[in-house]
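Note to self: user wants both folds in one dump. Writing first protein now.
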Amino acid sequence: METYNIIYYDDEFINKFERLKVMIEAEDRPALYRFLLDNFDFLFKAFQDYARQDDEGGVQAFEEADEEIRRELMRPLSYRQYRMIERSFSPWEEEEGLVIWSLWDFLHDNGRIYDKKVMSPAEVSGGSLILEEVYCCLAKGEETNDLSGK
């Protein structure tokens, strides 16, 4: 079984993140759904893995990290990230595009993604919540390719 330890905002992650924006802008729902499964589904697995490892006595990689990384792992969500979680649960049909964009906005965090080194467990948790809503939104809106939210 694959385990997830610290998720770094390395070049590979940033490239996937930047491709996410391109995929959302393309407004191709099936392609976006596939892209998310292939590139961001690890958020669900990481969240579950963190919980399992914590139940078993802690996430070893967290404990072995240097002081700077441990501080980043303790980073709470920003106010903007909380707003993106709230937006992802929008009950309004016409705001469906905003729900889909909320994942990118959550990770982008007003440009802070480029200054962060690692994804905190709070971000993993919030990101997985939003991703679940985006999947639901994509599944129920298959009849249209409009991701603009208009």
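First done. Writing the second protein, which came from a different request thread.
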Amino acid sequence: MNTTVRWNKSKVREMTILAMFIAIIVVMGFVPNLGFITIAGVSATLIHIPVLIGGAMIGRKSAIILGLAFGFASFARAFTSYGFDFLFVFPWVSILPRFIFGLLIYDGYQLARKVFKNRLVGLIVSFFVLSMIHSLMVLPMMVTAFPVLLGNEGWASLASGASGEFSGALDFMGSINNFSAAFTLITGVLLSNSLVEAILAGSIGAIVTDRLIQSRLGEQDIPETNE
């Protein structure tokens, strides 16, 4: 009976933590310049950090749910965005990579922890690598959306904004017509926004997660069977 009660309490606790992280993701997704810091039509992403923290803390299934929450928040936000951010109205840009991202978080963290034999080091390495993987999935999907946007005047008008504020971004999209140009775009973003995002995830995100895990479980880490 005591075992059942403890199990139920554990599940309620996990559901509460999951709901809290979903709420954080929603708030970060829709409050301007909180989860997505936009500069000249291109956003640096911070919202992936609570996804990483929650996924590492409460398991594989929860990480997938948080990844999807991230994706749907990005998808909904895109309808009020312009320039490059508007590309996230396409589900394969906003939702699919974030689902895969969530799927990888828990196992990526556990693998790094086993390899480095240390929880904090495992968190630092896995969060940095997972953040870069996230960018490597999203950026090529953005490039695949360019032809759809550029071939449709209605989409292009929405993406450029009523005032044409981001027409320069659309002109640049129009230049992405071959692999070399797409590779240049991806490399440029990886060396700027994505690297900063990964460093923040591997430093702030990893330290916060380590403290939360220690507070919740003492010296015991998340059980390997946690899903």
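Dump finished. Worth passing along: Strands lie at 36-39, 42-45.
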